[in-house]
């Protein structure tokens, strides 16, 4: 006996159903998405010392370290994943496995981001590193198609906020924008490293009409978000969850009255997508002002007040999660039903850095997937 969409209660959407639904992932770091077993194998080949050498134990160590409540400590876990991704073979393998894991999670489109400047220690150029990732993604997509799964994956290239190679990265994005690279990002320590440090790169991207999504509103607040919008001309906000600091909600005669500050109003009214990653936000302390449990995360408040909310895993390895896992949190803690989950996927489809025709195709896939549930 099958279960129809109409029969599913909002607070009882099974994980199996969630995995089968077509999903879109907009905020996912390649160097945070490695399988523990792959890290162990690559570390052994590279002679890199890991804190734990069995895959299960390494996974636990990553999640424990990432869950310290500090973004700085969270970022330290990447020392190990970046260290094992310094050869073309390693980058190809991890990109291919990344696509395999997307397919297993029911993802039909993903925009994977990573910082090529961090993968040149072994002699690779950034151009060679990007080509290796492109090859791995292509192998994964073709293998998925042969197995009957439709998935598309593009790259977002990051420059490190505390580094000095953003102009090089921006030029690489421009050069490869017709070869699967769709946007630019600034990643790394947010507080103290504003987009203004990378003004030349950001102006080049604006002149070339290349999309930008910037990490903002994670480790820093409204000022960082305003800077991402004004200086970076960001079309999406990486995390952006601290936009909630610019929102006041009062109760008047039992009715919630929402008052948006200027920055929050700008973001909501223009539909600027928030790339929210609930588990990661809890781990890094990005939402500590609202609480430390999933039910205190402001994602639901932002969704209910009309923000263009999208949901992604950020770093699958460090957070021990997937897109399905993040949606499951919303089902469990906020009672989201299929209508809510479908809206989140449509939000992501409309915000994807793809031509309109391709976004329309994604929207059709979402419609078919949700309408066909239980058929």
From TrEMBL:
EC number: 3.5.4.4
Annotated GO biological process: adenosine catabolic process; hypoxanthine salvage; inosine biosynthetic process
Domain Adenosine deaminase: 22-366
Recorded GO CC terms: cytosol
Named cofactor requirement(s): Zn(2+)
Keywords: Hydrolase, Metal-binding, Zinc
UniProt GO MF annotations: adenosine deaminase activity; metal ion binding
Main enzyme class: hydrolase
Pfam family, one: A_deaminase
Hydrolase found in the keyword field: yes
Entries under PANTHER family matching the protein: ADENOSINE DEAMINASE (PTHR11409)
Family: Belongs to the metallo-dependent hydrolases superfamily. Adenosine and AMP deaminases family.
Protein known as: adenosine deaminase
Underlying gene: add2
């Amino acid at each position: 006996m099958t279960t129809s969409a109409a029969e599913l209660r909002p607070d009882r959407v099974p994980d199996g159903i969630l995995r089968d639904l077509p999903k879109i992932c907009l905020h996912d770091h390649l160097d945070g998405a490695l399988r523990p077993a792959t890290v162990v194998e690559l570390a052994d080949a590279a002679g890199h010392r890991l804190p734990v050498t069995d895959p299960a134990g390494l996974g636990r160590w990553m999640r424990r370290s990432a869950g310290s409540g500090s973004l700085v400590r969270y970022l330290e876990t990447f020392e190990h994943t970046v260290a094992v991704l310094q050869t073309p073979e390693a980058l190809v393998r991890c990109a291919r496995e990344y696509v395999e894991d997307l397919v297993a999670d029911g993802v039909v489109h993903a925009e994977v981001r990573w910082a090529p400047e961090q993968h040149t220690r072994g002699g690779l150029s950034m151009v060679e590193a990007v080509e290796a990732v492109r090859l791995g993604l292509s192998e994964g997509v073709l293998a998925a198609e042969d197995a009957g799964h439709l998935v598309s994956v593009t790259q977002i290239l990051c420059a490190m906020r505390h580094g000095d190679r953003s102009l090089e990265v921006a030029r690489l994005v421009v050069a490869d924008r017709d070869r699967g690279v769709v946007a630019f990002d600034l990643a790394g320590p947010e507080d103290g490293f504003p987009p203004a440090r990378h003004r030349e790169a950001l102006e080049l991207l604006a002149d070339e009409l290349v999309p930008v999504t910037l990490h903002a509103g994670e480790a820093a607040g409204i000022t960082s978000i305003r800077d991402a919008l004004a200086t970076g001309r960001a079309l999406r906000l990486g995390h952006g969850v601290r936009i909630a600091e610019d929102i006041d909600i009062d109760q008047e005669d039992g009715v919630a009255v929402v008052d948006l500050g200027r920055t929050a109003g700008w973001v909501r009214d223009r539909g600027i997508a928030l790339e929210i990653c609930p588990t990661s936000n809890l781990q890094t302390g990005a939402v500590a002002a609202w609480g430390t449990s999933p039910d205190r995360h402001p994602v639901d408040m932002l969704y209910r007040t009309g923000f263009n909310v999208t949901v992604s895993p950020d770093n699958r390895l460090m957070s021990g999660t997937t897109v399905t896992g993040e949606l499951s949190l919303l089902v469990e803690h906020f009672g989201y039903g299929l209508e809510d989950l479908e809206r989140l996927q449509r939000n992501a489809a409309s915000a994807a850095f793809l031509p309109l025709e391709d976004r329309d195709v994604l929207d059709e896939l979402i419609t078919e997937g949700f309408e066909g549930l239980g058929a």
